Amino acid sequence: MPRTLNSANSTDRMPGQATGKERILASAMLLFARMPYSDTSLRDIAAAAGVDVAYVHRAFGSKAEIFRQALLALAPLDDIAAGDPDGATMINRICDLAFLRDPRKVEDVRPLHLLTQSSLCSEARAIIAQFFGTSLALPLSRAFGHADPGRAHFALSLLSGFVTHRAIFGPADLLAIPEADQRQMLQSALMNAMLPGCSDGVFGWRPI
């Protein structure tokens, strides 16, 4: 779930109201979830947040920094890896990111919305790659006891391929499969990618 944007220490708002910076970040999440990074301007973000562009510059410095903070707010490392989870728990949490809904409000936005919209943009792609490495691949590797995150990156490539194919192309035959079955197949694929023996053609995990 996205991180709560309200700050308990804010002093420039009434209780329960978002600050200008919080509104900017929430508005940016929705815009980046609906449009490619290259098509989203700081003016668009400022207008959606109800602030002027100069304030956006002062608050974040650049569109790239807004995009980076949006990704971190949507799936912070401490949520995905909370409680020192085992590998199966980590896979389960990562699978929660895969099934996207039309983002009508900020609570609907997931980091993979931003991936599907902006992975072809070079500036955004670098930020997404860093996010995948730091917030997903490294904790996933640790959960399985792997020193090398190579398997985790392979598993995440399966995840991103599934999400992109499902969200962008929307093949009817795939969407006709019950979501619970899709999730189980995805979970099996990710688990098998992470377990020793998969590279030898011997799959080490099956769902019950």
Task: Give a quick summary of the entry.
Helices cover 61% and strands 0% of the residues.
Record keyword descriptors for this entry.
Tetracycline Repressor, domain 2; 0% strand; mainly alpha; 208 residues
Tell me what you see in this structure.
This protein has 208 residues and is mainly α. It has a single domain (20-200), classed as Orthogonal Bundle (Tetracycline Repressor, domain 2), CATH 1.10.357.10. Helix content is 61%, strand content 0%. It contains 11 helices and no strands. Helix 6 (87-95) crosses helix 11. It is globular and about 55 Å long. It starts with 19 loop residues before the first helix and ends in a 14-residue tail after the last helix. The model is unreliable at 1-16 and 199-205 (pLDDT under 50).
Kindly give the count of domains: 1
Strand content: under 5%
Q: Average pLDDT, to the nearest integer?
A: 83
CATH architecture: Orthogonal Bundle
The CATH homologous superfamily corresponds to: Tetracycline Repressor, domain 2
CATH class: Mainly Alpha
InterPro entries: Homeodomain-like_sf, HTH_TetR
Keywords: DNA-binding
Domain HTH tetR-type: 18-78
Pfam families: TetR_N
Fold topology:
Blueprint: H1 20-34, H2 42-49, H3 53-60, H4 63-74, H5 77-80, H6 87-95, H7 111-118, H8 122-143, H9 150-169, H10 172-175, H11 179-194
Helix pairs in contact: 1-2, 1-4, 1-7, 2-3, 4-8, 6-8, 6-11, 8-9, 9-11
